[in-house]
Design goal:
The complex is a heterodimer of chains A (257) and B (199). Chain A is an alpha+beta fold and 257 residues long. Chain A has helices spanning 82-85, 88-104, 112-127, 132-146, 197-208, 221-239, 244-256, and strands at 2-16, 20-27, 31-37, 56-63, 71-79, 170-174, 179-181, 193-196. The longest helix of chain A is centred in the C-terminal third of the chain and has 19 residues, at 221-239. Chain B has helices at 6-15, 23-35, 38-54, 89-98, 125-133, 148-161, 186-194, and strands spanning 56-57, 64-65, 79-86, 103-107, 139-142, 167-170. In chain B, strands 4-3-5-6 form a 4-stranded parallel sheet. A two-stranded antiparallel sheet of chain B has the order 1-2. Classes of the chains: A alpha+beta (257), B alpha/beta (199).
Chain lengths: 257, 199
């Protein structure tokens, strides 16, 4: 039996039986990891109030060569997120990001960049320095890049012509081809939506800028709407399913309108 | 297991479907039922059937009830100006056991959960707002759980009630009686400090 300890963000929590929980963490040391927390729901000492979604914890997990899930033996708060808890919109965004991380990562492979990205996004969402929507655009763009699915916004996906030479104000996007298509290739593609040139530049900047400067980005309402609509169509298309929390987010936005 | 007759095996199979009951426990319970008097066994089976036939949801608070409105909603001694919002009937039972609450309840039958796509239309929030808008209620106590989902549900309801002339309060969270401070998590301790009271 080996003990493993690491900082970890709790990204999924499932009830198992009457008192146990099956918990998925994004750990700093070993990437995504699922463990069982035995008697967690009635625990008053080991896990009391600690195993909450999106919390940054210091965990100790016991792994063995036998079959079965690793067992969570200790967990303590490194940081709790007080403002996300009471706000359903922030909770919905955090849930969407956690679901994306859970769906895109493989178990047991270290993913420091994804850990740092999720940690930054949750921390900033809690503080509220950057609008939730901008943070979601940044998170999706960067996670897609880290997963090798970054939308191609530089060259036409069909003829590979440089989009910097393109003078069109609106540029078509083909989800199946994974990025933008020029006006000559549009008739031969399945482009269903378009992005303004300015929006494309903002997306490219958000994808490469220093995270601490991301708050400087100002999106116009149209650019924000366009970017969110594009990414929230691009991500489910390449994931092969629409995340439940994205469905929830859409319902919430409809209610707010 | 095949040394039991089919009627016993059938009972074991059905009992083992209950939560927390495995095949061995089911076997023990089946043997116990076998030893019971016929009258006791009949009472047990009839009470299970009666439960399925008579239980309905209270039309006012959505609690479990034998009648259209539950005992608490139809009790004239309860304070009808006070409504406590809880997630499940079990939560209502816990508050009732404490004997500390004189008002009525509203059971949401769930909690907002983005990861399960459970939205405001899937739980009884609309009915709560209609109930409050009727004008008899002066205070709403939000007693959803203190998990992320419970807290955000409370925040969502509080936001919806902001435009209505009603006081909205949230149950306090703090150090449990007999609890050891060193085992209390930092969020709970912080809240306990923030909501401390003079002696």
């Amino acid at each position: 039996m080996a003990l493993f300890s690491s900082p970890a963000i709790l990204i999924r929590r499932l009830d198992y039986g009457d008192f146990d929980l099956i918990i998925t963490f994004l750990t700093y040391e070993q990437g995504k990891m699922t463990a069982i927390a035995k008697s967690a729901k009635r625990s008053k000492k080991r896990f009391s109030g600690v195993l909450e979604l999106f919390s940054l914890l210091d965990i100790v997990v016991s792994t063995s060569n036998r079959k079965g899930l690793p067992v969570l033996t200790e967990a303590s708060f490194s940081r709790s997120l007080n403002h996300i808890r009471g706000n359903i919109t922030k909770t919905a965004y955090a849930s969407y990001w956690a679901e994306l991380v859970n769906d895109t990562l493989e178990e047991g492979r270290q993913q420091v960049a994804v850990f740092e990205l999720l940690d930054y996004a949750l921390k900033t969402l809690d503080v509220g320095d950057i609008p939730d929507e901008v943070l979601s655009i940044l998170f999706q763009m960067r996670l897609l890049t880290l997963s090798g699915l970054c939308p191609n916004l530089n060259y036409c996906c069909t003829c590979h012509s440089d989009m910097a030479d393109n003078n069109q104000y609106k540029i078509n996007v083909d989800l199946a081809k994974g990025g933008v298509v020029c006006e000559h290739c549009t008739p031969y593609s399945h482009a269903q939506r378009c992005l303004a040139r300015g929006t494309i530049k903002q997306l490219q900047w958000l994808n490469t800028c220093d995270l601490n400067k991301a708050g400087r980005m100002r999106f116009s309402p149209t650019a924000m709407r366009e970017s969110l609509a594009f990414l929230e169509a691009f991500v489910p298309y390449h994931l092969g399913r629409e995340p439940k929390s994205l469905k929830f987010l859409r319902r919430l936005r409809l209610q707010a309108e | 297991m095949y040394h039991y007759p089919p009627s016993v095996l059938n009972l074991i199979k059905h009992l083992s479907r209950l939560p927390g009951i495995g095949e061995k426990t089911a076997e023990r319970l089946a043997m116990h039922i076998l030893k019971m008097s016929r009258r006791d066994a009949e009472q047990l089976s009839q009470s299970i059937l009666a439960l399925k036939e008579s239980i309905q949801i209270c039309s006012m608070c959505f609690a479990l009830s034998d009648t259209e409105t539950c005992k608490i909603c139809s009790d004239p001694s309860r304070d009808a100006s006070l409504v406590c919002v809880v997630e499940q009937p079990g939560d209502m039972a816990s508050i009732e056991k404490s004997g500390a609450y004189p008002g009525l309840y509203h059971i949401l039958q769930g909690v907002l959960s983005p990861m399960n796509n459970i939205g405001p239309d899937d739980i009884h929030i609309k009915e709560l707002l209609a109930r409050i808008a009727s004008g008899k209620v002066t205070e709403v106590v939000l007693a959803t759980s203190t998990s992320v989902e419970g807290e955000s549900t409370a925040g969502f309801i509080a936001e919806k009630l902001r435009s209505l002339p009603v006081k909205v309060s949230r149950i306090a969270s703090g150090v449990p009686i007999g609890g050891d401070l060193k085992y209390v998590d930092q969020v709970t301790l912080r809240r306990a400090m923030e909501t401390r009271h003079a002696l």
